[in-house]
Backbone:
């Protein structure tokens, strides 16, 4: 995957407004402020195509980006501590779950987790739900540049144990340095094939 031709397609607030399912899709999920937008921008080799915010809850829709006329990358609203109305959080959850469960062209959900922290219950719940629904997913531990190599290895083992995965089931990534980008693109290529 080259990611040389990328275009924003639409922000979707309701399942009935989803774009035509004409290309395979990869969805990006993670807690609010985990670095989803930064990871996607680095992956797409763009500085600010995907809007980055320090304020949790900025992404409120499913944002579709067409990549190389080959697939869609879908930026999902963050989950967790977004300081928004409970009714709105429930609507986001219904939108995300409805999309993930029913989208015939969804090939993989990239679950982004901050490498610096212990496993979080909401991340565990999402991963367990994806397993139960037999939805292909890939764990990406981000912000690796914030830790030394020894700390990266230690934290990755801790997260692996907490999520019940092996090193083969996840990748380390840095949106700041780009480390892990090629490995992630290779895994996405395989998921889209």
Residues:
């Amino acid at each position: 995957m080259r990611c040389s031709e990328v275009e924003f397609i639409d922000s979707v607030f309701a399942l009935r407004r989803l774009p035509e399912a004409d290309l395979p899709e990869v969805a990006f999920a993670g807690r609010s402020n985990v670095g989803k937008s930064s990871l996607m921008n680095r992956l797409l080799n763009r500085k600010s195509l995907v809007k980055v915010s320090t304020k949790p809850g900025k992404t409120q829709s499913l944002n579709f980006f067409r990549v190389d006329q080959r697939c869609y990358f879908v930026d999902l609203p963050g989950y967790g501590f977004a300081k928004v109305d409970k009714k709105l959080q429930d609507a986001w959850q219904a939108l995300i779950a409805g999309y993930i469960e029913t989208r015939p062209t969804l090939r993989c959900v990239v679950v982004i987790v901050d490498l610096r922290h212990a496993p979080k219950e909401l991340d565990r719940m999402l991963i367990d739900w994806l397993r139960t629904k037999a939805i292909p997913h890939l764990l990406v531990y981000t912000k690796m540049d914030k830790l030394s190599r020894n700390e990266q290895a230690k934290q990755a083992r801790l997260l692996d144990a907490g999520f019940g995965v092996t090193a083969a089931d996840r990748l380390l990534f840095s949106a700041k340095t780009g480390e892990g980008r090629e490995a992630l693109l290779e895994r996405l290529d395989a998921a889209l094939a």
Observations:
- The chain has a mean pLDDT of 89.
- The first strand starts at residue 6 and ends at 12.
